[in-house]
Amino acid sequence: MSLIPMAHAAESATAAHGGSSIMQFVPMIIIFILFWFLLIRPQQKKAKLQNQMLANLQKGDEVVTSSGILGTVSKVVEQFVQIEIADNVVITVQKSTIAGKLEKGTLAKSRN
């Protein structure tokens, strides 16, 4: 029975501070904004650049796959890419497994 008067007192105290309910959400909004600028936005930029790179793949580009295989693109088909990894050795991989393009001449330096 003694808890009921305390509950009414707490209820009237929060009702007296009408703006405090909005102030409770301010830290969550600030945290969301920080997450947006520190995590979400950079990931979206990186994904956009990766998709552009995959869309612009051409024959002769030197690439590295996500598994670390280096090679030269010999043919690009819708979702697949044929990569020459050695003389007369061609493998077919999905476009999504290509991690990045290399500068021209990188493979020549690595084979020496």
Q: Encode the helix/strand succession as letters.
A: HHHEEEEEH
User: Low-confidence spans: pLDDT under 50, at least 5 residues?
Assistant: none
With strands numbered from the N-terminus, the spatial order across the biggest sheet is 4-3-2-1-5
Count of all domains: 2
Describe this structure in words.
It is a single chain. With 112 residues, the chain is α+β, with helices and mostly antiparallel strands. The chain is 48% helix and 26% strand. It has a 5-stranded antiparallel β-sheet with strand order 4-3-2-1-5, covered by helices on one side. The longest helix is centred in the middle third of the chain and has 30 residues, at 26-55. The chain has helices spanning 3-16, 20-23, 26-55, 106-111; strands at residues 62-65, 70-77, 80-86, 89-94, 98-101. It has 2 domains: 3-53; 58-111, SH3 type barrels (Roll), CATH 2.30.30.
What topology does this entry show?
Elements (H helix, E strand, L loop, with lengths): L2 H14 L3 H4 L2 H30 L6 E4 L4 E8 L2 E7 L2 E6 L3 E4 L4 H6 L1
Antiparallel strand pairs: 1-2, 1-5, 2-3, 3-4
Features:
112 residues, 5 strands, SH3 type barrels, five-stranded antiparallel sheet, 26% strand, alpha+beta
Summarize the entry for a quick read:
By secondary structure, this protein is of the alpha+beta class. It is 48% helix and 26% strand.
